[in-house]
């Protein structure tokens, strides 16, 4: 659904979300195609904005790992909605794996990930990604052994 956002020079405040904080910015700091959240009065698909928050857009999905590329540290994932994603795993990616015996999520390394494992992932959308390739922010691996009980 599309809305028109009406801005008021004296009323509207603008903020950039940075982690858990909001930093005040100017309207000129907002770039085209930015992901925004706005609050204000809605009247017939026109929102008179009190506050405009600029945030990052995230992709949150899950699926089966179909390929593990150990050279490039990436995973191919067939999502539950039948899309194929390539996840690049960086040193900053928070990697966790469910311990099949204790059912506790533990910090894990890339070498323990196998084809057939299930993955829940969060990735930052930075714009028009090529070939559904994203850098993963967080992944949670559920080993295939969990389902063979």
| H/E series | EEEEEEEEEEEE
Q: How far is the first residue's CA from the last residue's CA?
A: 44 Å
Q: Helix/strand-derived class?
A: mainly beta
Nearest-integer average pLDDT: 92
Reported CATH architecture of the largest domain: Beta Barrel
Number of strands: 12
Helix % is under 10%
| CATH level 1 class label of the largest domain | Mainly Beta
Supply the number of helical segments: 0
Shape descriptor reads: elongated
Largest sheet: 5 strands, mixed
Low-confidence stretches: none
Question: How many separate domains?
Answer: 2
CATH fourth-tier homologous superfamily of the largest domain: Copper binding periplasmic protein CusF
**Fraction in beta strands:** over 45%
Radius of gyration: 20 Å
Q: Briefly note the CATH topology name of the largest domain.
A: OB fold (Dihydrolipoamide Acetyltransferase, E2P)
Description of the molecule:
There is one protein chain. This protein is mostly beta strands. The protein has two domains: 4-55, no CATH class; 58-147, OB fold (Dihydrolipoamide Acetyltransferase, E2P) (Beta Barrel). Helices cover 0% and strands 56% of the residues. The chain has strands spanning 4-6, 13-18, 21-25, 35-43, 46-55, 57-69, 74-79, 84-88, 94-98, 105-107, 118-125, 133-142. The strands form two sheets. Strands 1, 2, 3, 4 and 5 form a five-stranded mixed β-sheet that branches. β7 (74-79) and β8 (84-88) form a beta hairpin. It is elongated and about 60 Å long. The termini are far apart. The mean pLDDT is 92.
